[in-house]
Amino acid sequence: MNETFPRRVSALWQAEFLSPKDLLRRAIVITILYGVVELAGLRDFTSILNGTMGSLDMSWRLSAFLGLGYIFAYLAFVLLVPILVIAAVILIFWGKISRRMEQGVTGNSSLSPGEEDGIWQDEPRTKAL
Fold this sequence. Notes:
The chain has three helices and two strands, in the order αααββ. It is mainly alpha-helical and 129 residues long. The protein has a two-stranded antiparallel sheet with strand order 1-2. Helix 2 packs antiparallel against helix 3.
């Protein structure tokens, strides 16, 4: 196995709270959780929603518990994972844009030096606070 892979995984788990890495870590954990309950076959226990039991070999309480566990994992996977990934992408781009703004780079490479927003500047522009 590649030595950099364990380092990257350990760096992912050491992410700052609500940073892009943290949001992606949460999305990965929810995805793994959903994969586990899906592979365990807990989808059959969601029949509690229409009043039937998922298994006749188990009590209705255990069937209801397993069905609710699957429903919560499914809803987290369908609703939270896309939100967390989109939020991480927005934070990444926001960080890049704010760093460019701090450095004074507009990111518009089609303009020649001294020209900004289609207007030719005679004097060099000073950095505004």
